[in-house]
């Protein structure tokens, strides 16, 4: 999570926006943590959650939430474009793709980085015996290949969502020693 002083001004301003956009379970967890720390009111707020996992964090607080038909930034853009005008705030990862940011900027949204996605250092385990690897975001693809730059060809690569799949396939195109299943 970003330092509190980096977030506090935006969190105070969030009271002026009707809809809060959350695009990951991590963003939801950090956002609600800060709401609790600063005792902010979410009365009359509506949430847009990119997908089911993010929605669960909002549902746990019994707050009104809408999800797009497709769990991507593109799905969120369609949802926003087909809604009456609302004011939006988007606390996000510093590594979030920029498509949704462009749309929300056109709508004078409050957009701020809530957290940075970083790969943690650790001694990675052997991949011996691993048959499948599941990736849930482009950042998980980057993290995996930072620890295993020449991962085994016999592993089945599984991606969750079209954006992660596209990103994973781009890795295979850049490195001919990797082969997608």
Give the SSE map.
Layout: H1 4-13, E1 19-22, H2 25-37, E2 46-49, H3 52-59, E3 65-66, H4 73-81, E4 88-93, H5 99-106, E5 110-115, E6 132-135, H6 138-147, E7 156-159, H7 162-174
Parallel strand pairs: 1-2, 1-4, 2-3, 4-5, 6-7
Helix pairs in contact: 2-3, 4-5
In words, what does this structure look like?
The structure is a single chain. The protein has 181 residues and is α/β, with parallel strands linked by helices. Helix content is 39%, strand content 17%. The protein contains seven helices and seven strands. The protein has helices spanning 4-13, 25-37, 52-59, 73-81, 99-106, 138-147, 162-174, and strands at residues 19-22, 46-49, 65-66, 88-93, 110-115, 132-135, 156-159. The strands form two sheets. The chain has a five-stranded parallel β-sheet, with helices on both faces. A two-stranded parallel ribbon has the order 6-7. 23% of the residues are buried.
What tags apply to this protein structure?
181 residues; alpha/beta; five-stranded parallel β-sheet; two-stranded parallel ribbon; 7 helices; 39% helix; 17% strand
């Amino acid at each position: 999570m970003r330092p509190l002083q980096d977030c506090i001004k935006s969190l105070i301003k969030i009271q002026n926006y009707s809809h809060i956009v959350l695009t990951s379970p991590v963003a939801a967890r950090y956002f609600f943590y800060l709401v609790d720390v600063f005792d902010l009111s979410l009365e009359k707020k509506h949430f847009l959650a990119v997908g089911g996992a993010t929605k669960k964090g909002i549902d746990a607080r019994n707050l009104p939430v809408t999800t797009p038909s497709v769990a991507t930034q593109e799905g969120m853009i369609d949802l926003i474009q087909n809604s009456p005008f609302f004011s939006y705030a988007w606390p996000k990862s510093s590594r979030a793709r920029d498509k949704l940011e462009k749309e929300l900027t056109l709508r004078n949204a409050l957009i701020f980085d809530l957290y940075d996605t970083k790969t943690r250092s650790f001694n990675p385990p052997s991949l011996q015996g691993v048959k499948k690897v599941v990736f849930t975001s482009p950042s998980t693809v980057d993290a995996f290949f930072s620890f295993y730059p020449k991962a085994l060809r016999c592993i089945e690569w599984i991606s969750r969502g079209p954006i992660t799949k596209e990103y994973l396939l781009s890795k295979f195109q850049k490195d001919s020693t990797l082969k997608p299943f």
